[in-house]
Amino acid sequence: MNTKSKLIVLLILWAVAFIPVYPSLISTWLYHSNNSHGILVPLISAFLTWQKRNQLQQAPVSNSHWGVVILVSTMVLYILSYAGAVAVVSRSMIVFSLIGLVLFILGESIFSIIKFPLFYLIFMVPVPTSIYKLVAFPLQLFATKISAFIIQVFSIAAYREGNMLYFAQTQLEVAEACSGLRSMMAFFMLSFLFAYMMDKNWKKRIFIIFSAIPLALFANIVRVTGTGILAHLYGDQVARGFLHEFSGLAVFAFGFILLSLEYFVLNKIKGKRY
After folding, report:
1. Is residue 274 very low, low, confident or very high in pLDDT (cuts 50, 70, 90)?
2. How confident is the model at residue 31, as a pLDDT?
3. Please, what is the average pLDDT of the chain?
4. Structure confidence at residue 177 (pLDDT)
5. 193-233 confidence digits (pLDDT tens)
6. DSSP letter string over 130-195?
7. Which whole-number Å values give the CA distances from 98 to 35, 119, 135, in the listed order?
8. Quick one: which of 44, 65, 120, 205 has the fewest CB in 10 Å?
């Protein structure tokens, strides 16, 4: 059996092994907006790998013993984590077992060409609920506090108590979904992609990756502030239903445009490569 046939057979077996994980993972992508960006990650990874097709055809095929170690270890961890209902570990093993499989069958030369698309797949794994709740509440309070200050700057009477904003005729709750963590994870995913496409200047790459944090916070504050002003003018119904979802999409698009502009500006700046 040649290398191509072995790869196809092992890929099929690998895909079949994770069948128990797929339903809950896909359901999380489709029905939990905090992780909806995850559905794009495999598509982006596949496209980035396809772009390397000429290099892959010319690269020598070999075997790596480290690939066997990684593949066996990750499959054992997968079985144990699935049996113990530790979803984040069992889902993560999809990515790391694939890395081990590529190393084992194709070798280090091919792995080095597609290592970014392979590791990029980790962004498809949803953030554990426990971590999300731990981080989301401080972000809710931060967004509420800053938004309340900005609203008051516009001479609108607003009183803040925790994650609640009180106006003369209505009130607005900055819920967990409005913490900005959803945008932050999506912007992190995009910032790593932009860093990968950028020239090989690690200072620029690190800068654009970590800029995802203030960018997500800024975009979310714009959303909360705008919603607060509209709630004051037209009532709290603007914070529900279609308008609420649309504002989330609009702010994400706004943040994406800012991140894209940052990428183009940084790419124009000439600097020493590292």
Report:
1. very low
2. 83
3. 85
4. 65
5. 999 988 777 888 999 999 988 888 888 888 888 888 888 88
6. HHHHHHHHHHHHHHHHHHHHHHHHTT---EEETTEEE-SS-EEE--GGGSSHHHHHHHHHHHHHHH
7. 22, 10, 30
8. 65
Overall size of the chain counted in residues: 274
Give the Cα separation of 38 and 24 in Å (integer): 13
Q: What is the dihedral of CA 183, 192, 29, 254, to 10 degrees?
A: 30
**Alpha-carbon Rg of the chain, whole angstroms?**
22
Select from 87, 121, 80 the least CA-distant residue to 101: 121
Question: What DSSP string runs through 4-67?
Answer: HHHHHHHHHHHHHHTTTTHHHHHHHHHH-GGGGGGGGHHHHHHHHHHHTHHHHHHSPP---HHH
Question: pLDDT tens digits, residue range 30-79?
Answer: 887 778 888 999 999 999 999 999 999 898 888 888 899 999 999 999 99
Q: The sheet that has 164-166: what strands, in order across it?
A: 159-161, 164-166, 171-173
Q: Residue ranges per domain, the chain? A: 3-124, 129-268
CA angle 15, 20, 22 (to 5 degrees): 65
Q: SS3 breakdown of the chain: % helix, strand, coil, rounded to 5?
A: 80, 5, 20
Among candidate residues 144, 146, 143, the one with its CA nearest the CA of residue 165: 144
C-alpha to C-alpha distance for 198 and 210, rounded to whole angstroms: 15
Q: Which residue has the higher pLDDT, 107 or 175?
A: 107
Using the structure block, give the residue that is written with the tokens 């790459």: 205
Q: Which two tokens stand for residue 215?
A: 């960018």
Q: What is the pLDDT of residues 157-193, one digit of tens each?
A: 888 888 888 888 788 877 766 677 777 888 889 999 9
